[in-house]
Amino acid sequence: MKKIMALILIISIGLMSLVLYLSIKQINFINSSLSTTGTVIDFEESYSKDSNGNRSVSYYPIFQFVDTQEQVRKVKSNVGSNPPAYQKGDVVDIIYDPQNADHAKINDTFSMWLGEIILGILASLLFLTSGGYFYFKSKKNKLKRALLASGRQIEAKINSIEKNTALTVRGRSPYIIYSQWQDRTAPDEIHLFKSENIWFDPKPFINQETITVYIDEANPKRYYVDIRFLPKVK
Questions:
Q1: What is the pLDDT of residues 88-111, one digit of tens each?
Q2: Sign, Cα dihedral of 114, 119, 125, 131
Q3: 150 and 203 in contact (C-beta within 8 Å)?
Q4: Which residues of the chain have pLDDT under 70?
Q5: Long-range contacts of 117-125 (CB under 8 A, 24+ apart)
Q6: pLDDT of residue 50
């Protein structure tokens, strides 16, 4: 799991770098371009299929404008949509490269920044997912160290060892050890504990009815189920 999250984090940073590069490139294009107006004269249809084989179509507007050399230019937008974002005959704002008038774009947020927005959202989601994983793992390890150093050691009765089917990685789900403990000083309360995820079946390595748990006496909800006796996964 850690390796997968590390890979996702690297990918997210790479995507963020790509978004930054594309954004700078786009800003440079905007700053060096000339502005004019053009007219949407047609659409180019582009077909694609999803993973289920369903066919869809996107409409890419073709617009026409006159550059500073009085040359009529016809350019297909690099951004398509369904339904079409424009209609034939629509007048649109155009920006184009004075050194290469065929490098032209419709000057609106959708046409100018759609790619960067999509990549940015994807990069953010991947970064938040992987970054959150490492943040909470670091926080959990800090709590674990503190409890091992100064927490109260108790023996909790093992209730069950079950698969955590809520989490699946490469077709595999980890195991969790569930246990409970009743404090003699508060017999009307039962404290329930669960171990961290274990990426192999621990049953063959458990021959006792209890498991050691370290708790924060001020707040027993802060605890660590000690599974250090189990073999390490290499």
A1: 999 999 999 999 999 999 999 888
A2: negative
A3: no
A4: none
A5: 119/15, 119/18, 119/19, 119/22, 120/16, 120/19, 122/15, 123/12, 123/15, 123/16, 123/18, 123/19, 124/12
A6: 77
- Summarised one tens digit per residue, pLDDT across range 81-92 is 998 989 999 999
Q: What pLDDT is attached to residue 203?
A: 94
Output the pLDDT for position 185: 79
DSSP sequence for the chain: -HHHHHHHHHHHHHHHHHHHHHHHHHHHHHHH-EEEEEEEEEEEEEEEE-TT--EEEEEEEEEEEE-TTS-EEEEE-S--BSS-SS-TT-EEEEEEETTEEEEEEE-SHHHHHHHHHHHHHHHHHHHHHHHHHHHHHHHHHHHHHHHHHHSEEEEEEEEEEEE-TT--BTTB--EEEEEEEE-TTSTT-EEEEEPPPBSS--GGG--SSEEEEEEETTEEEEEEE--TTSPPP-
Q: pLDDT at position 52, please?
A: 79
Burial 161-182 (b: 16+ CB within 10 A, else e): beeeeeeeeeeeebbbbbbebe
